[in-house]
Design brief:
- The protein is of the alpha/beta class.
- The protein folds into two domains: about 230 residues, Type I PLP-dependent aspartate aminotransferase-like (Major domain) (Aspartate Aminotransferase, domain 2, 3-Layer(aba) Sandwich); about 120 residues, Aspartate Aminotransferase, domain 1 (Alpha-Beta Complex).
- The chain is built from eleven helices and twelve strands.
- Helix 1 packs across helix 7, helix 2 runs parallel beside helix 7 and helix 3 packs parallel to helix 4.
- The longest helix has 22 residues.
C-alpha cells in the first residue's frame, strides 16, 4: 500500500515557527549580541507580560513547569507527612512533586464530563494531615474552582492550581492561576504558549509568597552571592524568555482559533458513538487538547494513522495505577471514572495553526471509520 500523502500532526509547531521565523531569529541575534543569557532583561519583560495577560499581580519564572510546582510547595512549607489532594487524571508532575517535596499524595477521582477533579469527592479524602489541594485544569478545561475554593476555605487548606494546559482558561470571567495561593504554568513547546525548550512560571497575587518563590528558584536569594535561604537552580533561560515574548503577542488569537476548531469538531462529529469534550457553563475551555472518548479507541487511532492523521493518548495510565504508585495498592473501583477514561480517551490534532480544512478532513475520516 502506498503511503498516504496527507500528514496532519497532533501539534504543528513547524507551521507556527515558519510564521514567526523572522521575529524569532531577530530575538536570537539580539541575545547573541547582548549576552545576558541568565536572568537577562527578556526574563523580566516576560514576567511582566505574562502577569499582565493572566491578570495576576506577580509572575515568577522557573526552569520548567514541574519545577514551578515544586518551588511553590517548598514556599508553602510542605512538611514530611503532610497530605496533598491531587486528581487521578494528570501528568505525573502533579503528584511526583508532592512526594519529592516531602509530602504524601492523596488521589481523588475525576468528573465524568470534564475529567477534572470531582469536588464532590474531595471532602471524604480530607484528614487532619491534609494541607492543600492541587486542582489540574486538564486538557484546557478549568476545574470547578468555586466549589473547590469553598471546600478549601472550610477546611483551612491552600490551593495550588496546575495550569500547565490551561493558559487563559477562565471560570466566571476570572483567569485560572488566580483562584488559589499560586498557579503553576508550563511553557513546554507543545503547550498553548510554548517556548523552544523548557520553561515554566508561577503566578500569584501574594507579593510575600512571590518573593519567597523567586528566592527558592534562584539559590535562595535575589542578589547574586547573597543567599537568604537554601534554594535550588530553576531559572528561565533568557533566550526562552525572548522567544516567549514573541509568541505571547499571538496567544489570545491562537486561543480563539483553538476554540473555533473545537466548535467545528463538535459540529462535524456530532451523532457518532463517541463522547465529545464538554464545557461547563461558567467556564472558558482553551482546548490544549481535543480529547474524545471511544470504545473503539485503538482501532480508530490506527485507522486515522493510515489516513495520515496523528493522534495521542493523554494519558494511557491514570496516576493511581502507575507503577510508581503500586505501593498504594489502589484498585480500579477506587477511581472508576479515571480507570474508565484511560482505555477510551484519544487526542485528535489541535493547535492554533490547525486549519478548518484539516479539521474537516479529520472529521470526515472519523465518520468514515464509524460508517
Amino acid at each position: 500500500m502506498s503511503e498516504n500523502p496527507v500528514r496532519i500532526e497532533l501539534v504543528n509547531l513547524r507551521k507556527q515557527h515558519d510564521f514567526l521565523k523572522e521575529e524569532l531569529l531577530l530575538k536570537f541575534g539580539e541575545q547573541l549580541i547582548r549576552g545576558d543569557f541568565i536572568r537577562g532583561e527578556e526574563v523580566s519583560i516576560f514576567e511582566k507580560n505574562f502577569s499582565d495577560i493572566n491578570e495576576s499581580s506577580n509572575c515568577v519564572s522557573c526552569g520548567n513547569g514541574t519545577d514551578s510546582l515544586f518551588v511553590a510547595l517548598k514556599a508553602l512549607d510542605l512538611k514530611s507527612g503532610d497530605e496533598v489532594i491531587v486528581p487521578a487524571m494528570s501528568w505525573i508532575s502533579t503528584s511526583e512533586v508532592v512526594t519529592l517535596a516531602g509530602g504524601r499524595v492523596v488521589f481523588v477521582d475525576v468528573e465524568p464530563e470534564t475529567l477534572t477533579i470531582d469536588p464532590g469527592l474531595i471532602e471524604e479524602k480530607i484528614t487532619s494531615r491534609t494541607v492543600g489541594i492541587i486542582p489540574v485544569h486538564l486538557y484546557g478545561h478549568p476545574c470547578r474552582m468555586l466549589e473547590i475554593a469553598f471546600i478549601a476555605e472550610k477546611h483551612g487548606l491552600w490551593i495550588l492550581e496546575d495550569c500547565a494546559q490551561a493558559h487563559l482558561a477562565e471560570v466566571n470571567g476570572k483567569k485560572v492561576g488566580n483562584f488559589g495561593v499560586a498557579g503553576s504554568f508550563s511553557f513546554y513547546p507543545g503547550k498553548n504558549l510554548g517556548a523552544l525548550g523548557d520553561a515554566g512560571a508561577l503566578t500569584t497575587n501574594d507579593p510575600i509568597l512571590a518573593n519567597k518563590m523567586a528566592m527558592i528558584a534562584r539559590h535562595g536569594g535575589l542578589k547574586k552571592g547573597v543567599h537568604i535561604i537554601e534554594g535550588m537552580n530553576s531559572r528561565m533561560d533568557t533566550l526562552q524568555a525572548a522567544f516567549l515574548n514573541v509568541k505571547i503577542k499571538y496567544l489570545e488569537k491562537w486561543t480563539r482559533l483553538r476554540i473555533k476548531n473545537a466548535d467545528l469538531y463538535k459540529e462535524l462529529l456530532s451523532g457518532l458513538p463517541i463522547q465529545l469534550p464538554t464545557t461547563i457553563d461558567d467556564s472558558k475551555h482553551v482546548f490544549h487538547l481535543f480529547v474524545i472518548r471511544s470504545d473503539n479507541r485503538d482501532d480508530l487511532a490506527h485507522f486515522l494513522k493510515l489516513s495520515g492523521i496523528s493522534t495521542a493518548i493523554n494519558y494511557p495510565i491514570s496516576l493511581p495505577f502507575l507503577p510508581a504508585y503500586k505501593y498504594m495498592n489502589h484498585q480500579s473501583a477506587d477511581f472508576p471514572e479515571a480507570h474508565d477514561a484511560q482505555s477510551r480517551i484519544l487526542s485528535l490534532p489541535m493547535c492554533g495553526s490547525l486549519e478548518s480544512k484539516e479539521v474537516e478532513y479529520i472529521s470526515e475520516k472519523v465518520r468514515l471509520f464509524f460508517k
